[in-house]
Amino acid sequence: MKINKIINLFVIITFFLVSVTCKTKQEHNKQDNWEHYKVIGDSIMASVTEKDMLFFAQTQRKEYQEIPKLADLNEDYLSLIKIIITKKLLIYTESPYSESGDWNNEYISYYDTDGDLKVFIRKSSFFNSVCVDGIFREKDIYSFSSNRLIKKSHEVYDEDMNPVADTSKCVFNYRFKFDVYDKYSDIPVVQEYEKLKQK
């Protein structure tokens, strides 16, 4: 009877250890998953040319207009949208129009080929931060798995890309509201243009 209790206890402990190990591996795989897509996405963004992108402008009437090339873009728009479709990744970027030119915000989404969001990046650069001379830069990175936020990071730099350690005196006037789409198919401009839809 005592031996049976020991065996049962051993089985329970073994099951627990296996469960913990599997869960740890699953969490690690989730992290590797989004990191994999971020590496691919960053590589594409660093090397992409205008001919590889599709351009759209959101007009003052909240409508979408395709722009054959950037040279055709006038200043009568709310935001510039870029779509990059590859065999490995779907990339959506949106940049609101800055009338003053004092700021520039860009929102970048990386989707896998199933249309699930893997990485969302918010970049902002602007003047008049008070805490640094020249341009202040900030970057937020949100990582997702199964439509769930699993990691977030925040980075801040000066004009020369040196990290800013103390932001307590900084003024952030350009942290505007933005949309994050869990699915590529949820993006409004994608819903309007057949050429953007997943095949």
Total strands? 8
Shape: globular
Q: Which strand order spans the largest sheet, edge to edge or round the barrel?
A: 2-1-3-4-5-6-7-8
Distance between the termini: 63 Å
The major pleated sheet works out as: 8 strands, antiparallel
- Can you give the helix content as a percent range? 25-40%
Spell out the helices and strands N to C.
HEEEEEEEEH
As residue ranges, the low-confidence spans are 14-32
- Based on secondary structure, the structural category is alpha+beta
Strand content: 25-35%
Mean pLDDT: 85
Number of contiguous helices: 2
Gyration radius, to the nearest Å?
A: 22 Å
Please tell me about this protein's structure.
The chain has 199 residues and is an alpha+beta fold. Helices cover 26% and strands 31% of the residues. The chain is built from two helices and eight strands, in the order H-E-E-E-E-E-E-E-E-H. It has an eight-stranded antiparallel β-sheet, with helices on one face. The radius of gyration is 22 Å and the shape is globular. The protein starts with a helix and ends in a 7-residue tail after the last helix. Residues 14-32 have low confidence and may be disordered.
